[in-house]
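Hello,

I think I submitted the calcium ion job twice by accident. Can you confirm which output corresponds to this input? Input:
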Amino acid sequence: MVAVAILAAGKGTRMKSDLPKVLHTLGGRSLVQRVLDSCHLVTPSRKLIIIGYEGEQVKQSFEDISSLEFVEQKEQLGTGHAIQQLLPHLQGFEGDLFVLNGDAPLLRPETLDNLLQVHQKNNNAATLLTANLPNPKGYGRVFCDGNNQVNQIVEDRDCNAAQKQNHRVNGGIYCFNWSKLAEVLPKLSTNNDQKEYYLTEVMDYLNPVMAVDVEDYYEINGINNRQQLSEANDILQDRIKKAWMAAGVTMIDPSSITIDDTVTLAPDVILEPQTHLRGNTFIGAKSHIGPGSLIENSTIGEQVKVLYSVITDSEVASNCQVGPYTHLRGEAKIADSCRIGNFVEVKKTQIGNKSNVAHLSYLGDAVLGERVNVGAGTITANYDGYKKHPTIIGDRTKTGANSVFVAPVTLGEGVTVAAGSVVTHDVPSDALVIARQRQRIIEDWKAKIMKKQSQYKD
Ligand code: UD1
Ligand code: CA
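Support: Only one job matched these inputs. Its output is below.
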């Protein structure tokens, strides 16, 4: 049995932020959510999050609170003190406990799985992840014998000049035999520069303790300030983009593209510069996205073109063309082979197959059938100041340029709407609706007006 405990009680002073450090986001997920997600291969039966500073906010940030146990550390007296808080919660627990720093978001699930296997195979009391860093400043240094058996961990600030020469650092990621750890936790002292209870001191009492080096030292990067957050973002983006390119995605100027690791791309997708894909987004095969597009929590079909557009919380089926300068949002659903064009905003609206909304329109809370042609400047007046109302437009209906639909209103199939109409009542199928004043012509008006004006001249 495996349990995991994540240290997330600290404020993260060096972030200079109102937000607790572990809630800063990287690629669309909070640091602590990322750490939690990195445990999925070791299938923990219990997941404990140690909270303190802004604890309630940290708790509410999780996607699935019900599967987690929150342990409060009222005062942050150090990482050892944080783990001491687990003692009443894990009483009688038999198995291994992972302890993970909540600020190490680049950890890979495979690395934890490997750590667990080494730990169990060697019957270790503790196994910890280490790395040789070119710049080890700020990290605890790990001192081992020739067989990776750990003798001691010394924090950077407690190191003497000779100890500082050791570049092998503690990643803050450990696997413990819980009952052995529980036995020695009460022994921790505050005999160090910070006068804190250091978790690393347990290594003095446990045996055997083994260090395992990570291949890619980025994995143990702890985020302590905004610069490290931005560096972690670069590393993450690099990882994500290389993986999608290997899977058959073309990227033009990848350094200008960002992709959350919650996004899925099909083969032969082409991403052009300044394209940003976020959240739970899927892009189908052979779709061509960008330049200059933002797509968030949306599903895009195959062979879709999206140019200079913003799409959020929406669905676009295959063979559609979107943009330039289109905004789809709030559950817009565009069926196959539609064209949504320049300066068109579509909100919470369904559009049937082969319909076109090519220029300068707002469609909100509407349902459009198939092969509808929405004329330039068509607007649904969906809001009366209190409530939103629907507009229904049947198959093959054509709306004239500059028509306004004052919702709630329903148009049948094959309706023709005259340009400039303000439609306030339902229209039956196959009708023509003209809802504007008839044009009037006053002959010789200019001569009359000139005459009138000359009377007032002095
Ligand atoms: C810690 C390790 C250090 C290691 C480094 C890796 C100790 C004493 N040192 O140092 O050896 O190289 O991580 O990144 O463990 N936290 C609590 N309660 C507390 C104190 C901290 O929950 O009372 C949490 C913080 O929110 C953070 C994590 O523990 O998520 C690590 O704390 P931090 O202060 O960043 O430790 P480091 O000094 O980086
Ligand atoms: Ca840290």
